[in-house]
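[agent] plan:
  1. take the single chain provided in the ticket
  2. run structure prediction with default settings
  3. attach structure tokens to the ticket
  4. add a short note for the reviewer (M.T.)
[agent] executing step 1
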Amino acid sequence: MPGSAVRGGLIGLAALAMPSAATTPAGNGALIVPGDAFGAADVGDLEELARFLAPLVAAPAASAASSADLKLRGLGGALPPGILPRLEVRAGGAPRGRIGTRLAELGTLEAARLVPGPAGGTVAGRLDLALAPPGAEAVGDWRLAKGTNGLWRLGGGVTQSVMADRAQLRVDGWWDRRDGWLRDPAGGAEWNDRAGWLVRAGLAFSPRDDVHLVLSADWTRRRDDWCCTGAYLPAGAAAPIAQALRGLGATLIDDPAALRAALTPGRRPKAGLGDRGIDLALTAPVGSSKLTARTTLRDGWARQSGDADGLDLDLLARGGRCQRATFFAQELALEADEGSFRWWVGAGITRERLVVRDDLRFGTDATRAVDAVLGVADPTFPGLAVVAAELGLPGVALDGQGVVADRWRQVETAGYLEAGARLTLAPTLDLAAGLRRQRVVGALEARLDGDNPLCQALLAAGRPREARLACAVPGLDAAFDRRRRAAATTGEVNLGWRPVPSLSFEARHATGFRPAGFVLDRRALDPTSPEAPWLAPERGAGQTLEVRFGMGRRHVALRGFRTRVRRLPFVAEAGERVVAQALAGCAEGAEPCGARSSALALRGVEGEARLQPARDLSLALGLARLKARYAAQLVAADGGPLAPDVERLAGQAPAGAPGWAHTGQLLWEPPLGAGLRLRLLFDWRITTSFTSDPWGGARVPAHGVLNARVGLSGPERRWAMDLWVNNVTDTRVVPAATPAPLQGLDLGEARLRSGAPIAPRRLGFLLSTRF
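[agent] step 2 finished; step 3 output follows
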């Protein structure tokens, strides 16, 4: 029973044995995808991990400036600036910043370890990406890939021993580009072009046999034409709003699978990012124990501009939103193994400074679009021009109004202390337990400068229906400084029993705590009383019962789990606004809600198998069954009123939580003689239907995705050639959708939505060599 099951800080992955199957049962409810699976499949994006991990649901990042939308057992997802990602990601043991991460930018991966929560400093779970340190052998490698959609990818690296073989230096570099697969149905313009490069260096130094120092640094730049699908209607939905918008000249996409996006001419979406960081890790003996220390510094920025509504009507636009995050982390851990008793203590502190600047405004078609939408609900509506005149604002419209300049500055400081121990009660029985104390302090300074007098006048006149659309970009001016803090103690207990070497059982109970933060978006503010929403940290508890069997070439794991999220930070776009509130559940029969219960309950069964029927044939299978539901009665965790529309979530399944998911990978590498090997690889994922919209108005149909690769490798795998086809079935779905802005007052099925589709069928070849 590895000690890292309880520890939430530094994760010692280097000691884990990484078998060569695609997905390996790892114990403690964790799954491991070894690095050779990534190499065989040429995985480059973080969302592609869902190809191997059945409990993980991923949606493509809408832009290079944002991270992939990852959900584990229905928890996680993309969040607005200011909110800490709920699924923690660590690379090489170091926490990653907020700026979007790609697997291809992390160097050589030894493994990806997915730990479902609650676990240490998280409720949703943690993704640990183990990076290979520079090896002792002087080697080099390079890769060249060419594919459809104008894909080019070139990369490589060199490892060299220095300082009398006491140190090893590794330098890597990558460059890639591709054309987008979204087309404008009118002019044929192309969206989602991407390009980027990476430089990474690592130095492993061992002044003594028992002292190890690893220093790494990386620098990344990326740019793309960020976009999504054009606004579309869920299948079978009524379309009165759509008809009204088409009457204004809007091009609506009836089928999101058509890979079309009609955007405002002259407002081409653009995005870019830069990310750089340094990480220093030290391992040294301290008496009979071992000390591990890690320091991480990261600095990243991301910019977005262009069309912000997903229509070729000019409703919303950004001149430029910029966010910059600087991150510092210092962690220490001391551990000792005394045979039947192992103990560890740890401490860490993190500090992040996040600055966001935004200038979202109404476009030149906003007034007439709002008139059309309100006219559908009330055919007698005279129009905003008449209403503005009645309110003493003749000639005032929405066009061009909104944000003059918003500046948010959030500083979040967090620290933790933890301690744990593992005791061998009997030769076949282990007990491990740990405690973790966390504390977080968040400070916010905001200076908001807006210009939307019609919004303020409608609010003052008590006309909420018109104000809801006219205040999609509130024009208020505000300045405030806020400070919030939270603390919690969490723990974990593991009981493991191994009656025979090939069979083991494990029972686990854990509690989790994850800070959230402020919502740095003026659409989340109450226009009548601006107060930046502070989301209280997420809290939850869970139990897992797991059985594992391993003998020879067969490894199987089966687990049942239950998780209850007692306090759930809920953040979702609701068309014209952002809804942000910490939710709790109300126990049945409690009037008023005097007895709180969980806001979200999860339970299910997961299984993994790794089989090797023949020497050169391996098969990995994964299966996940999940039942997730919000509480039948939701309440605000702080005791205040429930945010509008949140009550519709009661009793529903959260977005991104399919009832069934199955993954598989089949790899056959027979020898051909003279050191040559053939490689045939197939991996697939099958998912049942699930909700894609956080408000429950849109669903993703049941679907499957198949990827295939055939290749030839030389003696000792010194070179290889591969032909690959991703998404052989050309499946086209939008895994995550949000209600489109200014296109209706209802969040139900008749509401237009937008979202990023998965990549269509792509073909290409890959050449690689080692020297």
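[agent] step 4 note for reviewer: The first strand starts at residue 24 and ends at 25.
[agent] ticket updated
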